[in-house]
Amino acid sequence: MGKQQPHSPASGSSLNTLVQNGTSQMNNGIYKPEITVHGNGTDVSNDKAMKGKAKRKTITQAMALSLVDVAKNNGRLERMQPYWNTYHCQNKVYSSGGRLYGMYCKNRFCTLCCANRKADIMNRYLPIIRQWEAPYFVTLTVKAVPARLLKSRIKKGIIRAFQQITAKYRKKHQRGKGIKLMGIKSLECNFNPIRKTYNPHLHLIVPSKEIADILVKEWLLKWGKEFTSSKAQHRTQVRNKEQALIEIVKYGSKIFTEPDVNKKATQKGQHQIHTAALDNIFRAMQGCRIFERFGFNLVLDQTHEKKKTILRTYEKWEFNMQHSDWLNQETLKGLTGYMVNNELYTLLSAKINQTSQ
Ligand SMILES: [Zn+2]
After folding, report:
1. How far apart are CA 82 and CA 67, in angstroms?
2. Which ranges in the chain are annotated with CATH 3.30.70.1120?
3. How many whole angstroms from 161 Cα to the centroid of ligand 1?
4. Segment 299-315, tens digit of pLDDT
5. For residues 268 and 124, is the Cβ–Cβ distance under 8 A?
6. Which fold has domain 125-301?
7. 90 C-alpha to center of ligand 1: Å?
8. Does pTM surpass 0.85?
9. What are 162-193's pLDDT values in tens digits?
10. Ligand 1 mean position to 86 CA, how many Å?
């Protein structure tokens, strides 16, 4: 916060979901080209959704700037562009017919895009989970590692171990000697700022206790006592299917990290954003699927095709970090009326921690 708005070397070049068309229109005497937008847009009259969007944009922009610095300071210049793309996500938005449209960066470290992805996953998977009679929520963990071991712990450890377990049961099932494992899973990674360690783990929802028990048993067998313990694995019956799915699709790493992870309730104002740790997590998870189903398929849903709309009359808004809101480019009026509260202001201005971990 408080920094000059920088310009990306290729500002928005990979974000072209908005296309300016050749035909032009005059609106209130001001020349405006027609633009093509994708998707259904956001309902402008939904105050809560609009303020939520402004909050996510404020957090994402501050975080992306810090991630750019981390990448630059570590000499990983190829990491800078994706972070810049996220910085520019939804920078310019267009309102028309009561809906708001803009370009999405589609990066996994963008809280704006993650909110979209979450809605998409909920739409596709909630109807399936609702059909499961007594689903279980399972957490599979292994011992935490320092940053240098994180990538191999995720790719050669957690992901491979899980694949081997499901493959074993698939073969058993094919021979008629057991049930097929199925469910949905997400990969998550926490950072412990005191120990400076990373704790990648899996969250799953499975249709039955039987599958939950098999997964925990096989996981413990696979890793042995050196890497895990039975009390670090969790199984609970899902009471609220929608809430369980929300838990699962939550972002693959926690943006806000508590200063003391052993304290259950972190006091207000104690959170920090550890961007160097986040950069380590994003790099380690590169190329991994964060959210995945296993043992079943989805019926293809055609409604997923994003529709195109041509806007001829619209208002153009541009995000302004100082205002934490999009401003109308003609009237300078704020779009959402969102105001950053003191706690978030302090967090974003003083508590983004770039110390290398
Ligand atoms: Zn984005």
Report:
1. 10
2. 125-301
3. 32
4. 765 555 578 889 999 99
5. no
6. Alpha-Beta Plaits (3.30.70)
7. 7
8. no
9. 999 999 999 999 999 889 999 999 999 989 88
10. 5
